[in-house]
Amino acid sequence: MAKIGYGIAVKVLEQLGSLTYQELSSAWGVRSDLEKLKDTVSTIKAVLLDAEEKQASDHRLNHWLGKLRDVLHDAENVLDEFNYRVLLKEVMKKYGSTSKKVRDFFSSSNPLASRFKLAHKIKDVRKRVDDIAADKDKFNLAQRVEDRKTTMHKRDMTHSFVNPSDVISRDDDKRKIIHLLMQQDSGRNVSVIPIIGIGGLGKTTIAKLVYRDEGVVSHFELRMWVCISEDFDVTRLIKEILKSAIGSIDENLGVDQLQIRLREFLKEKKFLLVLDDVWNEDRNKWIELEALLLGAGGCNGSKIIVTNTE
Questions:
Q1: Is 9 in the same domain as 58?
Q2: Do residues 85 and 204 share a domain?
Q3: Which end of the chain is less crowded, N or C, counting CB atoms within 10 A of the terminal residue's CB?
Q4: Which residue has the higher pLDDT, 305 or 23?
């Protein structure tokens, strides 16, 4: 799990540092909570490198990092939703609430109720982050600075805001991907759909819109989302897939036992797995992971979406 928590913290801070977030958070009544969340995540990030290095020899620290990773994922998802709702408002303002194309794309219900609900989600996730962060002092962690300029890689900003016209133009991308997901592939139970080089909204955002689509949710018995980034370790990825599917696993299981568990769980299920933010180009590692997933025994129609950089 090396640097996974650190990477998520960096992404959350990138979102919270957006000028658009700063400008719109007051209008939405969430400025205070977002500022507190930013301060807390910044404090946590400072000690995460030390924590992730020490976790192998400290079971309590490992457990704390697991909880922290989960709540940071939740924070990232809530911020994505905030992005989505603000963008929806801008689209409605530009194109008008009577535009069928806009209504079909966003399928929004009562906007005021959605706004209050989202504000509550932001407050709730901020409190959860605060509670978990308060326990960091139990581990005597040192502040460390990342020795590589991880955040300076040339890559897509998948959480940036875009012009409303770009969103409308991406409706076709979303629809095409959903069409591919619904297709039954003769001769193979599991097929892979790559999302490469989609601009505007960003590949991750397109994948999330597809992943959360009501038709997709009802079509698949099981959905899993795993962020890969640079740490393409097959054993770690199997663990992350299992955690996404069942919530928790025995961290002491060996790779053979993990593969058996994964096959048992996916057997005869129609599943959707998203492997997000893939950087690794090691063909041998891809072959190993592909062989495992394609041979997992999922029902015909199971799909794997892969988002990666060009």
A1: yes
A2: no
A3: C
A4: 305
In a domain, 159, yes or no: no
Does pTM top 0.70 for this prediction? no
* Domain final residue pick, 142, 161, 183: 142
Domain limits for position 14: 4-142
The two structure tokens encoding residue 274: 């998203």
Nearest-angstrom CA–CA distance, 34 and 210: 27
Residue 158 lies in a domain: no
CA atoms lying within 13 Å on the CB side of residue 138: 13
* 176 and 131 within one domain: no
Residues 6 or more apart in contact with residue 248 via CB below 8 angstroms: none
Domain shared by 194 and 270, yes or no: yes
Q: 172 and 241 in contact (C-beta within 8 Å)?
A: no
What 30-38 contacts at long range (C-beta under 8 Å, 24+ apart), as own/partner pairs, is: 30/82, 30/118, 30/119, 30/122, 30/123, 33/119, 33/122, 33/123, 33/126, 34/122, 34/126, 36/126, 36/130, 37/12, 37/75, 37/122, 37/125, 37/126, 37/129, 38/13
Q: How far apart are CA 123 and CA 127, in angstroms?
A: 6
Per-residue pLDDT of 4-34, as tens digits, reads 678 788 888 887 887 566 666 777 788 899 9
Task: Look at residue 105 and tell me if it is in a domain.
Answer: yes
Are 66 and 72 in contact by the 8 Å Cβ rule? The answer is no
Q: What is the mean pLDDT of the chain?
A: 75
Domain count, the chain: 2
For residues 197 and 263, membership in a common domain is answered with yes
For residues 261 and 98, give the distance between their C-alpha atoms in angstroms, rounded to a whole number. 50
